[in-house]
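Data availability (excerpt). The following record was deposited with the supplementary files.
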Amino acid sequence: MDYLPIALSLVAVLVALYYFITRNHNLFKKHGIVHIPPTPLFGNMGLLARRQITIMDLLTKTYQLDSKAKYIGFYEFLTPEIVLRDLDLIKAVTMKNVEQFSDHRPLVNKKVDPMLGGMLFMLNGDQWKHHRNMLSPTFTSSKIKTMFKLMSECASRFAEHLSNLPEEQRETEMKGLLTKYTNDVIASCVYNVSIDSVKEQRVLCVR
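Predicted structure:
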């Protein structure tokens, strides 16, 4: 039996697979963009995939790669991405040219989690534009400055509550506590009502 054709076919498949996996790995080098050299298949996600680093540490490491760079190249497995560091570029993407960046990665399936999936950063296209136009008047600079003080007061009460928890209650379910904090923020910022849900065990109900 002649194994040569089989061997050549296998080599051709491996070469094609390697090309597919690494086809974008010279993108940042080609354009002179600072980046961490990627590994095949995993890109810059190898340590995270092996659980040797947290996603926060990985992003921090990437962000701090070059303090003078306006942006850093990053490979999420096979996908090249840009991490912005320059404030003017961030403003251009999120404010000045925001219409050009209306599509977002659907990290959460809206059918599975309607609340999280319906967040502005999870929406795309016309749906995103509609929600943004609806929310923009609520979050002007002056209103955000006013709300920041109210949110800070809620956060201070929340932090004080956590610091005063007895030792046996240090391990606790955070969802309930964070719901109460959110409840206080909404009551303060939207309805101008000062409550302390953590202590008073109140929940704001709106119909």
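Summary of structural features: The first strand starts at residue 71 and ends at 76.
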